[in-house]
Design brief:
- The chain has helices at about 25-30, 95-115, and strands at about 1-10, 15-20, 45-50, 60, 70-75, 115-120.
- The chain has one domain.
- The chain is built from two helices and six strands; from the N terminus they run ββαβββαβ.
- The chain is of the alpha+beta class.
- Helices cover about 25% and strands about 30% of the residues.
Length: about 120
């Protein structure tokens, strides 16, 4: 599996979006074959300022002991295929719920670790 990733940072937001893709599939596309049959389920996160300057940061950095006066929002999005459901209205099985819970928890932990941050 390969990871296709895009990221951007500007004064308004920081964003990372990525998707896992089979290496053989990507190699065939890079060789010029048709890419219309490839399914990509991107996931990612975005960090935006909350616009309220009097509020303390939601996530603060301990590594460099910086202090800012405004807060931030962290938005995380996932697209996940499960084998438990044949229709969009069906419920997820407990194994899928646990898997999604683990994915969300580990992703949030990895974001905080990567930014050298912790909740205040």
């Amino acid at each position: 599996m390969w990871m296709v990733q895009d990221s951007c940072t500007n004064r308004y937001e920081s964003m990372v979006v990525c998707a896992r893709v089979a290496a053989t599939t990507m190699q065939s596309v890079m060789a010029g074959r048709d890419s219309s049959s490839i399914s990509i389920l991107p996931s990612g996160f975005s960090i935006l300022p909350d616009g309220i300057e009097s509020r303390p940061l939601v996530i603060t950095s301990k590594a460099d002991k910086q202090s800012w006066e405004n807060g931030s929002f962290l938005t995380v999005g996932f697209q996940i295929l499960t084998s438990d459901s044949d229709s969009p209205a069906s419920e997820l099985g407990m194994e899928s719920v646990e898997s999604v819970n683990t994915l969300i928890s580990s992703t949030l932990h990895n974001i905080k670790t990567g930014l050298q941050c912790e909740d205040e």
